[in-house]
Design a protein that fits this description.
Blueprint (H helix, E strand, L loop, with lengths): L5 H4 L8 E4 L7 H9 L7 E5 L19 E5 L7 H5 L4 E2 L7 H6 L7 E6 L7 E3 L7 H7 L2 E7 L6 E2 L2 E3 L5 E5 L13 H11 L7 E4 L3 H8 L8 E2 L3 E2 L4 H6 L14 E3 L1 E2 L3 H7 L5 E3 L2 H4 L2 H4 L5 E5 L3 E3 L4 E2 L2 E2 L2 E2 L6 H10 L4 E5 L11 E2 L17 E4 L2 E4 L5 H11 L5 H12 L1 H4 L3
Helix pairs in contact: 6-7, 13-14
Amino acid sequence: MKYMSAADAVKLVASGESVYIQGSTSIPEVLSQALADRGHELRDVTIYAAFAVGRCEAPYCRPEYKDSFHVKSLFVANNIRKWLAAGYGSTIPAFLGEIPGLFRDGTLPLDVVFLNVSPPNDEGYCSFGVSADLAVSATECANKIIVQVNKSMPFSYGDALIHVSRIDAAVEVDDPLVEVPTAVPSEIDIAIGRHIAEMIPDGATLQIGVGGIPNAVLSALKDHQHLGLHTEAMTDGVLPLLESGVIDNSCKKVCPGISVASLALGSRRLYDYMNYREDLILKDVAWTNDPFRIAQNPKVMAINSAVEVDLTGQVCADSVGTRIISGVGGQHDFMYGGSLSEGGKTFIAIPSMTEKGVSKIKPVLTEGAGVVTTRHMIQNIVTEYGVAHLRGKSLAERARALIEIAHPSVREELDRAAAERFGHSYLRIR
């Protein structure tokens, strides 16, 4: 291992080059800061940033560095959101599972990758720990690999491994990973979780997201049997089901007996659980999110969230109007893969209202809002008021089903909008 200081390691980055910085809860903060410290001597360095949870704003996102670093975001993470909103960086729209292909075919050329890795095992392999996602393809394509060797990083198996001989520069750190508090489900979340759990059969394979509603779903599955896990993001919410044996992966066709994810974010308890665990692997996101691979598992249950939904079933999940607040992630991939799975079901789970009292079911999407999942792919929309089964329904029938699970205070308004838009085809099913 070629150990050196962070300041010396980042000297491998030259003006005009492109750098991928690993994400999830494992941003290589020491290297990022050292790169920012060189901002006065660098120009036109492109930084590719993916899904991540940072402790603070990225250090290279300062006005004085606007000509030094240009951020091209593959997911609008919390540590760069203000920078992008101010116009100093830009977002590349892409399904998360397709981004590795953009690296591999040279559409997004890479010179350098920054990784946060575990100490090497006895065979000389370091693990990317909690973040295989885009890091696998970025490491494959970059000319220079610079790592933080971090005592706090768990050793995970799968694709997230690199031999020390491939590393160009290494910096020893003991930098605790960001911990994401487990979201405590509200009463509304619990109601939504129960609706979904009632539709999940034993032997199902779960793809589940982050937050109160997913945790409520997982809590409601404690009496199920032989569930499997093939997901993009793994959180603390799955630990009780793994530890109790409810998730045993015995019915999966892809990696039976093994829990599969592309990244992990949660508490230290989750990271410790992952450490040297051979029945849990992290894979390249192009692999985990391949809809046709997802579909090979039986009874895939794809559970995702949204910012808002219109009366035809169009789903916006990445923006508030024209303001991009996150990214597409794997929602489309798993909604498609789940729909192809034998016995599969897909769900968009949302509270009927925002915290500010605005309906999340709307006559039309907010002007400028992006459609992440089209009306053609939607099966079930779930709120605390029930489930709207949209598969095979006409637009007028969809509107009626969605109005029935909207907040009571907006149903009359939505009813008028549906009647005006769909005319007799809607009025006849009142």
